[in-house]
Amino acid sequence: MIHRFVSWTKAICRFLAKVLCTLAMPIRHNWVFVLMMLLMLSLCIWREWIYQVDTALHYWHFCFDIYLLCIFLMLFRHNIRRYVKFLLYGIAYLSTFFEIFIMERFQVIFTPTTINLWRETNAEETREFFLAYFTGSAFWITSGLLLLTVCIHILLSKLEDWKAPRPYLLKLLSSFCIVLITILSISPTLGEKELLCRFFSSSEQAEKVKSELFYSPVYRIVYSLCMLHVADQDLDDLKESMKSIQIDSCHHQCPNIILVIGESFSKHHAQLYGYKYKTTPNMIRMRKEKSLAVMYDAVTPWNLTSKVFKNMLSTYDMNKSGKWTDGVLFPAIMRKAGYKVAFLTNQYQKSTTQNGIDFNGSFFLNDSELDTLCFDIRNEKHYALDGDFIKEYEHYQPAAYNFIIFHLYGQHVKYNCRFDQSHQYFTADSLNRKKLDQEQKQIVADYDNATRYNDQVFADICHYFEKDDAIVIYLSDHGEEVYDYIRMFGRTPGDNISAPIAYYEFEIPMVMWFSPIFKEKHAAIVAKARAVYREPFISSNISQLVMGLAGIKCKWYEAERDLLSDAYTPQQRLLKGTIPYDSIIAGSKFEQKWKKK
Q1: Does one domain contain both 97 and 193?
Q2: Which of 209-236 are b and which e, b meaning 16 or more Cβ less than 10 Å from the residue's Cβ?
Q3: What DSSP character marks residue 472?
Q4: What CATH number is associated with residue 398?
Q5: What are residue 158's phi and psi, to 5 degrees?
Q6: If DSSP codes are grouped into helix, strand and coil, which group holds residue 571?
Q7: 345 and 379 Cβ atoms separated by less than 8 Å
Q8: For residue 398, what pLDDT band results from cuts at 50, 70 and 90?
Q9: Residue 142 per-residue DSSP state
Q10: Are the C-beta atoms of 340 and 550 separated by less than 8 Å?
Q11: Is residue 60 part of a domain?
Q12: For residue 271, what pLDDT is reported?
């Protein structure tokens, strides 16, 4: 009996050992390939360690991906496998060391913007690039790392060819480690693979996937090319729509219209909307002076800036079939109507360092043809603080009729970088948030300080137009969760929108400021703005509001979408294109009290 048990045990152990060795075979037979790919990945992300970015997840993704790649290699016969490896090595070496070079020389990585620059470069410009930049410290650092990598590669290849016998126990132990690491990599990788499948499923889904998911140079190139393909399609559609811009009439009702687009401003952290801390003293003062009209029921269709910008600047009606490129960019309509149009942005300026999300939100603005159609003035410099950024306006030479867009950095994470120390008003200890720990309270304090600083920036913008016949419209691109309900800060990327998510991330502050001259000359508009404070509004209709203020009549102006028009008709407000905001919020504890009356 014991002998049979021992025999069965040995048979099971032999079977398990065979299974282990079989599962580990793709890695063991390609171990040099695995180590070289790991080395090149590490060379590319070593800079992230310097900036204290957590890169551990990259390595888990690598373990899973390299196992699948080695299985792919095992599908080929040995003599063919060598050529496939050679091809993969070539791709890895070229992408890795070119990215290292541009990181050292220009402090950029592969993004849609950098790939687009390369795509638009002709042969002569490429030759001049190599002659001009393949010298200096960046070139020698890259060359040194390349030489070191090649030497390691040669050494490992020699070891691979060494036919010394390997102990069976070592083989078994290495197989166990390989299988264990691969299994452990599955859990942190599954979500990533789901997002990758979504990315390649459609252009609409591709826009929702963050660029940080693509952790290696090759992945970043693939991501960039896909995003460029999406951008090319959208640009072609948009340019076709904008060929026929015609204005029926414009009586320039308001000569100076200023649109201020904030960033990540939660109205529920605004004193103006009932927050218990003094985060908006200037807006409170303006309201008391009767120069500010406050809108209490404004929402955004997206909680992602890039998507918001497309729908805010396009005249497209989200309640109709189609997509944002079926409309036209309304700054072009304003320009066609005789307004001088300036776009001053602290996020979407023309730059080679834009990440994927910023590229996705601004590629259509930075296209030379559309840029010429839409804007007379653009800025090219980014500022750490919005207070410094808005001084760009001091170089602006106004015309008789002006439409100016200020796009702020607002309360974008990191919140403690959005204000200077002289504007540090709140501290963790000054907030009465008993359910939060000290670190969480500090994040809330930083956000509230950023909100108070943003309030000062808004007041400074209004001051520029104090002596003009001007109206300043402020609204945020989206809201923000700051440990208010779901105990996190930032925004949720998924498509499942609950009442608290709609409340904190999609409800936005919206105000209109009137200069003294404007109040005197346009009393009817001021009265109307104060009267519609309860009207439901969605920021994708801002184009209609601005065109209405300008007095523009054209095929793209729809009075029923213009908040200040007598013909205004509240429409269904769709979040992320399909989810009705009012249905989600109705009946919940987040529904505003005055709505229930």
Answers
A1: yes
A2: bebebbbbbbbbbbbbebbbebbeebbe
A3: E
A4: 3.40.720.10
A5: -65, -40
A6: coil
A7: yes
A8: very high
A9: H
A10: no
A11: yes
A12: 97
Q: According to the model, what pLDDT value does residue 121 have?
A: 58
**Residues 120, 65: contact at Cβ < 8 Å?**
no
- Please report, as a single letter, which amino acid is at residue 49: W
Residue holding tokens 């670190």? 439
Arithmetic mean of pLDDT, 505-530:
97
Rounded to a whole number, what is the distance in angstroms from the first to the last CA of the chain? 83
Could you read off the pLDDT of 67-96 as tens digits, one per residue? 999 999 999 998 899 899 999 999 999 999
Indicate if the pLDDT at residue 467 is higher than 80: yes
Mean pLDDT to the nearest integer, 438-447: 94
Alpha carbon distance 191, 199 (integer Å): 12
Go through 118-133 and write b for each residue having 16 or more CB atoms within 10 A of its CB, e for each that does not. eeeeeeeeeeeeeeee
- How many CB atoms sit inside 10 A of residue 398's CB? 14
Predicted pLDDT of residue 129: 62
| pLDDT tens-digit readout, 298-313 | 999 998 888 899 899 9
Domain membership flag for residue 246 = no
- 584 is in which domain, residue-wise? 254-596
Distance CA 595, CA 586 (A): 9
For the chain, the C-alpha Rg in angstroms (whole number) is 29
Compute the half-sphere exposure of residue 511: CA atoms within 13 Å on the CB side of its CA. 24
